[in-house]
Design brief:
Length: 361
């Protein structure tokens, strides 16, 4: 791997390119309040972040990425529209792969713009594409918003739709829930016994843990309501599966998704946004006829993406993580803005990987 001085110099070069695109350089603290990240991602974040504590500030995390603190900064103090760039170290646990670094440098570019979201998507992607063009990387795109729209359009309860949305970024859990809600998977025996009891709390014994009797009773009522709900139809499950199976060039993917929208009209606005984005990309010189699109792309990444997603990878180097990645995260601005929101899109590049690939490492 390149040395730290070389990585810092490359990070500075990349940041200057983003500044030339109108971005204002910003900095964020290395230590971030854990409460915010836990609220966003739940306890899962602990598996990939370094956590510490402070007597005055409470639980803290070493910065796992820049997007969350940059969004917080913008929602508290930023004018509109705005563009930011930043660089610095992020920290991620690598418990399943000791060969990957748990501390590395990111350089990022973010746009907060209400007027034309699809044009902003295209601008960010085209900027990254042009910067990384000399490396000959594979570019892949997707759109989490299409799957979200499909879930919202299901003929089932709001509780079930909320559960599916919550686990869109956990494909195995999402599939398990879809199978259970559609009747394809049997109800666990322990749950059957619980729901069959006239008074499930009668023999509960002493209360252990943080949940009180009222919370437990509410959860049992929710499980009974779910049991009484009609299953999601096989036709709708088939349409979800058809969306997840879309993996083609962007133009062909667009036509396939339009075909699916005939039977699932709930996804049509998201498909129209994809079409507008492709037009904007083409206007910026991107060959959308050959650009890869995968409907499920980005589902195992950080959970703030809720629309367009993209990544650049080195073909023939499956040992390497993505050289660059990004996407749209409108809902994150709403969450951190306490009711205020603004369309936002951005991405990050790893300068250490850029240098390594340039040197043939």
């Amino acid at each position: 791997m390149p040395n730290r001085a070389a990585i810092r110099a490359e990070a500075e070069r990349l940041r200057r390119l983003f500044e030339a695109a109108g971005a204002m350089p910003v900095e964020t603290s290395v230590l971030q309040p854990a409460e915010v990240l836990l609220d966003l991602y739940g306890e899962d974040i602990r598996a990939r972040a370094y956590v510490t504590s402070d007597a005055l500030r409470g639980e803290q995390m070493l910065r796992p990425d820049f997007t969350v603190p940059v969004v917080q900064m913008h929602m508290e103090h930023g004018a509109e529209p705005a563009r930011y760039t930043y660089s610095g170290a992020v920290f991620r646990r690598q418990e399943d792969d000791a060969s990957r670094s748990n501390e590395y440098t990111q350089v990022g570019f973010e746009i907060f713009e209400r007027a034309a979201p699809e044009a902003s998507d295209a601008e960010v992607f085209a900027l990254f594409y042009d910067i990384l063009r000399p490396l000959g990387l594979r570019a892949a795109t997707g759109d989490i918003g299409i799957l979200m729209a499909a879930v919202d359009g299901l003929k089932t309860t709001d509780r079930r739709k909320a559960a599916l949305r919550r686990h869109i970024w956990r494909p195995r859990r999402f599939r398990a829930l879809l199978d259970r809600f559609s009747g394809r998977a049997p109800v666990p025996e322990a749950r059957k016994a619980l729901l069959a009891a006239a008074d499930p709390m009668a023999n509960a014994g002493a209360m252990i843990g943080l949940r009180g009797p009222d919370e437990i009773a509410a959860r049992i009522r929710a499980l009974r309501e779910d049991e009484a709900a009609a299953p999601i139809s096989g036709a709708e499950v088939g349409l979800i599966d058809a969306i997840l199976a879309v993996r083609e060039t962007s133009i062909n993917a667009l036509e396939r998704l339009r075909d699916i929208a005939v039977d699932m009209p709930a996804i049509l606005p998201a498909v129209d946004r994809l079409a507008a984005r492709l037009d904007a990309m083409e206007a910026r010189g991107i060959d959308v006829q050959t650009l890869d699109f995968e409907a499920s792309y980005g589902r195992t990444q950080m959970e703030y993406y809720d629309g367009f997603v993209f990544g650049f990878s080195a073909e023939g180097r499956p040992d390497l993580p993505l050289v660059a990645s990004g996407g749209r995260y409108d809902a994150l601005t709403r969450h951190l803005g306490r009711g205020r929101e603004i369309p936002a899109v951005g991405g990050v590049i790893r300068p250490g990987l850029v240098l390594g690939l340039e040197d043939g490492q």
